[in-house]
């Protein structure tokens, strides 16, 4: 019963794992004061920046047309987006005029990609390759291109033979890589987890039940992660994706463990883990010897990517998180009073610069001044403006300093009625003496590598399934295990073991993670920059990007 729900969830999740997350441009237009506008209805999670990008206009153009957007967007809100006609690529026009490669098909009511492919005796992939601009859901009356017989060279190729994919229009290999994609009948992923099975006899379950002894922390994390992986693997198998998981006990997860000598490791196509720094670097050496990619699911330090092009880091560093919050603030509050606060502490300057540099780049691209830097609370107080929202970015992990600044800012917010939004760091959520009233009252925004929307129907089904299987509640490690296994299992099946050249194009979103990989350097590995921007509203955390 439980696994049926998991399969249903997977069918919803899989299409977004290896696809770009794009905003659908509205077809509705309106003319006002002699100017043409698209009418765009805002959906949850959309921002001014992402909408502007979708319509190929600047954020300023949208704000100028919609003065009420300065305080943020709300789902259901209608925006006037300036209509700019993009000239068609002359090369495309030339191709269509010749038109030996395709013909047009007008979509009938009820038709799908699959039914159309059967009608023309083609595959869905062959048709979609000519219609990259078309979203997954077809609409009646829509025109799509259908490859002509001469444009498709039909070949039967076994999955374990070398395949060179040809573009049906221009007849050249994919531009992302000149390498041949090698696919197998089945792929093997090795998960390196600290089960510490050698100490099983020392665990005293009766004392754990009574609460007088805790279950070993690293083993608990390993089990929770394993449960998520197992559910993902079941979903992949049911969808026809042949990927097998193999589990290797890294013991206490310390360097020099015996697990590295397991002969089965040489048969793996991908390694995930170990979870902790010293042991992971040993895993990097092993992966280099085996010539395969290795994924760090938890570590945030970017040093492990340097000189290691086949390392993937699934968690963004603090520096990257602060860059992303800087971009978000600049794109969404450009017309407001933004200030970045320097605490004066040398440890904070790196992340202060990360926020300011990333945000300033966005603002300058909008023909605005760079983000203003102010010194401490006195600098903030002197810079507050009554007529605007004051966006105070405080990049500091110093608990006593942050608590002191927030308490005084909140008093100003109450006494002087200054409109203040506070932007901070993920670590604040663990500060025990930070008053929730401050965070809620000043709409606290911060970046995070993970976010589970417990009101989402698919996630609710997943939790019910998990409870039925394991008689407990899923944790962040469970969701991470599921998301990572599903993303990389799908990626291996789609692109083969040498997927790295295409990784930056393969985006996805799971239940707790987003995947937006960026290469950190020419000879270095890939970091996941898929950061969520969260905020407090009505004493609840919501996602705003």
Describe this structure in words.
By secondary structure, the protein is α/β, with parallel strands linked by helices. The protein is 35% helix and 18% strand. The protein is built from 16 helices and 23 strands. It has helices at residues 2-17, 48-55, 59-65, 90-98, 113-119, 124-128, 205-210, 217-238, 277-290, 318-332, 349-365, 376-383, 399-415, 436-441, 457-470, 476-495; strands spanning 29-32, 35-41, 78-82, 102-106, 143-147, 162-163, 181-182, 187-193, 243-249, 270-272, 293-296, 311-313, 337-342, 372-375, 390-393, 420-423, 445-448, 508-509, 514-515, 517-519, 526-528, 532-537, 540-543. The chain has a seven-stranded mixed β-sheet, sandwiched between helices. Strands 14-13-15-16 form a four-stranded parallel β-sheet, with helices on both faces. Helix 11 links the parallel strand 13 and strand 14. Helix 1 (2-17) crosses helix 8, helix 1 (2-17) crosses helix 15 (457-470) and helix 8 (217-238) packs across helix 16. It is globular. Residues 1-21, 86-100, 153-180 and 206-210 have low confidence and may be disordered.
Observed structural traits:
about 550 residues; alpha/beta; 7-stranded mixed sheet; 4-stranded parallel sheet; 23 strands; globular; disordered N terminus
Indicate the topology.
Blueprint: H1 2-17, E1 29-32, E2 35-41, H2 48-55, H3 59-65, E3 78-82, H4 90-98, E4 102-106, H5 113-119, H6 124-128, E5 143-147, E6 162-163, E7 181-182, E8 187-193, H7 205-210, H8 217-238, E9 243-249, E10 270-272, H9 277-290, E11 293-296, E12 311-313, H10 318-332, E13 337-342, H11 349-365, E14 372-375, H12 376-383, E15 390-393, H13 399-415, E16 420-423, H14 436-441, E17 445-448, H15 457-470, H16 476-495, E18 508-509, E19 514-515, E20 517-519, E21 526-528, E22 532-537, E23 540-543
Parallel strand pairs: 8-9, 8-10, 10-11, 11-12, 12-21, 13-14, 13-15, 15-16
Antiparallel strand pairs: 1-2, 2-3, 4-5, 6-7, 17-22, 18-19, 20-21, 22-23
Helix pairs in contact: 1-8, 1-15, 2-3, 8-16, 10-11
């Amino acid at each position: 019963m439980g696994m049926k729900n998991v399969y249903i969830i997977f069918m919803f999740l899989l299409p977004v794992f290896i696809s770009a997350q794009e905003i659908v441009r509205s077809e509705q237009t309106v003319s006002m004061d002699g100017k043409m506008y698209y009418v765009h209805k805002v959906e949850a999670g959309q921002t001014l920046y992402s909408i502007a990008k979708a319509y190929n206009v600047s954020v300023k153009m949208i704000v100028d047309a919609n003065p009420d957007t300065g305080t943020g967007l709300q789902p259901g809100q209608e925006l006037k987006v300036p209509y700019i006609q993009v000239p068609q690529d002359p090369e495309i026009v030339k191709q269509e005029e010749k038109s030996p490669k395709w013909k047009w098909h007008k979509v009938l009511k009820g038709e799908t990609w699959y039914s159309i492919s059967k009608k023309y005796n083609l595959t869905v992939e062959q048709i979609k390759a000519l219609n990259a601009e078309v979203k997954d859901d077809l609409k009646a009356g829509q025109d799509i291109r259908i490859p002509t017989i001469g444009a498709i060279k039909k070949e039967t190729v076994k999955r374990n033979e070398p395949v060179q994919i040809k573009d049906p229009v221009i007849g050249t290999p994919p531009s992302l890589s000149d390498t041949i994609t090698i696919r197998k009948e089945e792929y093997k992923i090795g998960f390196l987890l600290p089960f510490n099975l050698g100490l099983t006899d020392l665990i005293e379950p009766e004392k754990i039940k009574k609460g007088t002894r805790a279950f070993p922390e690293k083993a608990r994390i390993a089990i929770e992660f394993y449960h998520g992986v197992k559910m993902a693997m079941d979903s992949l198998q049911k969808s026809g994706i042949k990927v097998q998981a193999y589990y290797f006990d890294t013991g206490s997860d310390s360097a020099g463990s015996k697990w590295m000598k397991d002969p089965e490791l040489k048969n793996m196509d991908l390694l995930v883990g170990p979870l902790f720094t010293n042991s992971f670097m040993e895993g990097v050496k092993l992966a280099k010897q085996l010539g395969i990619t290795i994924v760090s699911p938890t570590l945030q330090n970017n040093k492990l990517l340097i000189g290691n092009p086949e390392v993937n880091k699934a968690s963004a560093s603090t520096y990257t998180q602060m860059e992303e919050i800087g971009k978000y603030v600049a794109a969404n509050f450009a017309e407001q009073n933004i200030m970045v606060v320097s605490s004066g502490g040398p440890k904070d300057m790196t992340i202060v610069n990360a926020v300011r540099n990333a945000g300033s780049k966005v603002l300058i691209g909008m023909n605005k001044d760079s983000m203003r830097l102010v010194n401490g609370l006195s600098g903030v107080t002197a810079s507050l403006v009554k007529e605007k929202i004051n966006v105070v970015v405080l990049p500091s992990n110093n608990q006593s300093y942050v608590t002191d600044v927030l308490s005084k800012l909140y008093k100003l917010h109450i006494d002087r009625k200054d409109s203040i939004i506070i932007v901070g760091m993920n670590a604040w959520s663990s500060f025990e003496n930070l008053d929730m009233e401050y965070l809620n009252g000043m709409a606290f925004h911060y970046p995070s590598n993970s976010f589970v929307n417990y009101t989402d129907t698919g996630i609710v089904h997943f939790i019910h399934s998990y409870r039925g299987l394991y008689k407990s509640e899923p944790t962040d490690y469970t969701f991470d295990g599921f998301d990572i296994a599903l993303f990389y299992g799908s990626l291996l099946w789609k692109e083969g073991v040498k997927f790295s050249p295409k990784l930056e194009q393969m985006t996805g979103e799971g239940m707790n993670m987003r995947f937006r990989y960026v290469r950190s350097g020419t000879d270095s590995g890939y970091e996941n920059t898929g950061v969520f921007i969260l905020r407090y509203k009505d004493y609840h955390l919501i996602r705003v990007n």
